[in-house]
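Students often ask why inverse folding is considered easier than folding. One informal answer: many sequences map to the same fold, so there is more than one right answer. In these notes we will look at a single instance of the problem. The structure comes first.
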């Protein structure tokens, strides 16, 4: 027997989706234009409807229950299909759209590209907004299939027939150190690189930086001082200690303007890091998605 939707407020599904994607009631409310009391009331109504707490408060925010995680696998894609259907009927112009695009893009994208992208949107499509998330521990294919994201910026091609991608250039790796480092002069040597302590990046508890993947067994052995999840945190450590850090060159340019650090060429032969823009194949023909995709490609290739 089909569940009777007559007495269910389907707007509650967007509340559920927003809390799942942001992990915080206040951020979800900002995304939907709702006050926190209104969000709390809506979530309570939904809990009664599905007979499950759905979320439990923790220090990190709102942690989903197993039922919520399972339900999101169905609700997320369904809401995206509804949005796509409505948008395709209206075929709105970018300057008239109120669409929210979700990007799976880490600290690198936020530091290098986010500000110029937002400037472009304010001029050409002021109603469009962005939701920036990191790739979950479950990986890119899972995040896209669950309806969590519209795009991802990554350094590996997706191994999934349901995802499209295009190359958006590549990035050289450099090593940042504090200015006037006591053991590193104008040239960073292999010995310097191996002997100094390193700051590396880890997201969702997993080391995800591409240096180890690109170099494989040939990578130099490093002594790790700290694992961090944000580049600004790394730069703060670098400028106040003797530690060093391997990062993309464009990011180094940004950090050198903000912190007392300097960049050195990577001391070993190293392939450039490829950059890929990835999106779900089901959204490829969506007019607004295509417009935003072109803006992303132009921006990344131009900087």
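Output (designed amino acids):
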């Amino acid at each position: 027997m089909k569940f009777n939707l007559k007495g269910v407020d389907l707007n509650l599904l967007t509340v559920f989706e927003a809390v799942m994607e942001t992990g915080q009631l206040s951020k979800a409310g900002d995304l939907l234009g709702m006050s926190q009391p209104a969000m709390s009331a809506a979530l309570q109504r939904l809990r009664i409807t599905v007979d499950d707490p759905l979320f439990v408060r923790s220090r990190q925010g709102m942690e989903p229950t197993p039922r919520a995680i399972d339900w999101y696998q169905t609700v997320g894609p369904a809401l995206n299909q509804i949005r796509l259907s409505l948008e395709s009927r209206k075929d709105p112009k970018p300057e008239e759209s109120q669409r929210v695009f979700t990007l799976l893009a880490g600290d690198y994208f936020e530091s290098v590209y986010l500000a110029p992208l937002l400037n472009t949107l304010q001029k050409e499509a002021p109603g469009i907004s962005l939701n920036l998330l990191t790739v979950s521990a479950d990986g890119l294919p899972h995040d896209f299939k669950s309806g969590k994201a519209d795009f991802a910026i990554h350094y590996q091609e997706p191994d999934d027939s349901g995802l499209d991608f295009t190359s958006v250039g590549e990035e050289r790796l450099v090593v940042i150190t504090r200015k006037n480092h006591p053991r590193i002069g104008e040239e960073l040597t292999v010995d310097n690189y191996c002997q100094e302590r390193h700051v590396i990046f880890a997201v969702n508890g997993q080391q995800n930086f591409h240096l180890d993947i690109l170099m494989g067994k040939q990578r130099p052995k490093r002594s790790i001082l700290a694992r961090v999840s944000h580049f600004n945190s790394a730069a703060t450590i670098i400028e106040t200690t003797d530690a060093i850090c391997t990062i993309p060159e464009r990011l180094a340019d940004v950090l050198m303007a903000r912190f007392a650090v300097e960049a050195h060429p990577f001391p070993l032969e190293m392939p450039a890091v490829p950059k890929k823009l990835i999106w779900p194949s089901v959204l490829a023909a969506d007019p607004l998605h295509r417009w935003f995709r072109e803006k992303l490609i132009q921006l990344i290739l131009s900087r």
